[in-house]
Specification:
Blueprint: H1 9-30, H2 45-78, E1 93-97, E2 103-110, E3 113-120, E4 126-130, E5 138-145, E6 148-155, E7 161-166, E8 179-183, H3 190-195, E9 203-211, E10 222-227, E11 238-240, H4 248-258
Antiparallel strand pairs: 1-2, 2-3, 3-4, 5-6, 6-9, 7-8, 7-10, 10-11
Helix pairs in contact: 1-2
Length: about 260
């Protein structure tokens, strides 16, 4: 070794001892061709035993260090962030699906964000990523498939039901669903959801809001209210602007996000 290792000096000590053993062995082999060469000094049996035990102990320490480094690397490959305990990258796992197979909803982690994937039968996938909702909050996204408008989302553990209304549908125009609602469900496989980074105790929901606009567009954003089991609101409304609807409610939400509120 040309230089010493400032981080693991034990490696330098082991290297020196192994080098000495090799040199002694080489000197013993050369004795056959150089009869008058002095024999290497052989340490007493007690000293040799202590030397072997010392090398064994140090080799064991190095092995433990290597195992620790390997464990850190394995955790990194598994996607753990090493700090918050939440995985940073996972594979999607199903949260649930419609009884007739019309849609399914999955969740996974991407760079620590909680992501949803809504897969309607015969339609295009829709996704949404963001922070996991707080206890009494919800986060939603929308999709249009098969001529119908869907709303899917995740809810904190304090939310039992959700109610949805159309924002700024003046005189009832622009929306075919004056109100809608449904219960929050738990993942079909708790262990798989946990491995995918879905927060324990949180739930999910999917609502069919009925026929979409004939042109396949959303004319009004959806306002989602988080409720308890008795239908009482427990947290702030969530304005869903994921389908590109820009109304006053969406403008206020964008301004609030920009201001950090």
């Amino acid at each position: 070794m040309n230089g010493r290792n400032p981080d693991l000096p034990i490696l330098d000590e082991l290297g020196a001892e192994f080098t000495a053993l090799v040199e002694a062995a080489q000197a013993a082999e050369s004795h056959g061709t150089r009869r008058r060469a002095p024999l290497p000094t052989v340490p007493p049996r007690r000293e040799r035993g202590a030397q072997v035990r010392r090398i064994g102990r140090r080799a064991a320490i190095v092995l433990v260090l290597l195992c620790a480094v390997g464990g850190v690397a394995f955790a990194a490959l598994r996607g753990s962030d090493g700090g918050s305990g939440e995985p940073t990258h996972t594979a999607p796992t199903p949260l649930g699906s419609a009884g007739d197979g019309a849609w399914s909803l999955s969740a996974y982690r991407d760079e620590g964000r909680l992501c949803m994937v809504f897969a309607p039968r015969g339609g295009e996938l829709s996704g949404n990523c963001g922070v996991a909702p707080a206890r009494d909050h919800v986060r939603t996204a929308g999709a249009i498939a098969g001529g119908r408008r869907y709303l899917f989302g995740v809810a904190g553990r304090g939310v039992e039901r959700v109610a949805v209304s159309a924002a700024e549908a003046a005189g009832g125009h622009g929306a075919t669903w004056p109100t809608a609602g449904g219960r929050v469900r738990v993942p079909v496989d708790h262990a798989a959801a946990r491995d995918a980074g879905f927060p324990p105790g949180d739930g999910w929901f999917v609502l069919d809001l009925g026929p979409a606009d004939p042109a396949g567009r959303a004319k009004a954003p959806a306002v989602v209210a988080p409720l308890d089991a008795r239908g009482r609101r427990v947290g702030p409304n969530y304005v869903d602007c994921s389908l590109g609807v820009i109304g006053e409610a969406c403008k206020r939400r964008i301004e609030a996000i920009a201001s950090g509120n």
